[in-house]
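Recall the central idea of this unit: under ordinary conditions, the amino acid sequence of a chain determines the structure it adopts. In this exercise we apply that idea directly, starting from the sequence alone.
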Amino acid sequence: MTGCWSIWKVRNDLLFLNKRIKIDNIFSQVKALDFLWYSSRSKHKDISWVDWCKFVIT
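Accordingly, the structure predicted from this sequence is:
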């Protein structure tokens, strides 16, 4: 879901704000948004950003 949301936001930025888009930025946005949603909604509050980036999720 966050992938679709991020692509939609990038599309809008491109069409309405004429922003240049880098594919790497889309992946970074997806990863950051996933972490934000997961860490705020999950019972596992002890996950860190570093672990999230390493995909060390237990």
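The first helix runs from residue 2 to 17.
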